[in-house]
Amino acid sequence: MAGHGQDRKAPAYPLITHDPYFSIWSFSDEAMASPTKHWTGTDHSLTGFVKVDNKVYRFLGKEAKTYKVLLPLRRIKLSQ
Length: 80
Prior knowledge:
By secondary structure, the chain is mainly beta. It has a domain at 9-60. Helix content is 0%, strand content 29%. The protein has strands at residues 13-19, 22-26, 48-52, 55-60. The strands form 2 sheets. The protein has a two-stranded antiparallel ribbon. The mean pLDDT is 78.
């Protein structure tokens, strides 16, 4: 079975690269398939929208999942 160079896909695509501490990457093959991230994998959400004929379209990024707090955390003071 012969391999084709065009069939290979990059693990991530740079969107913004200023320096190692400020860079935003897309880890999916489609620009809207996942939230954008730092090269370390930490979420750095960047979302792009465009309005055409009074209708808004998202062309970049995906909203990160948000979770609702069910049980609030309480701090416990430890005696010494």
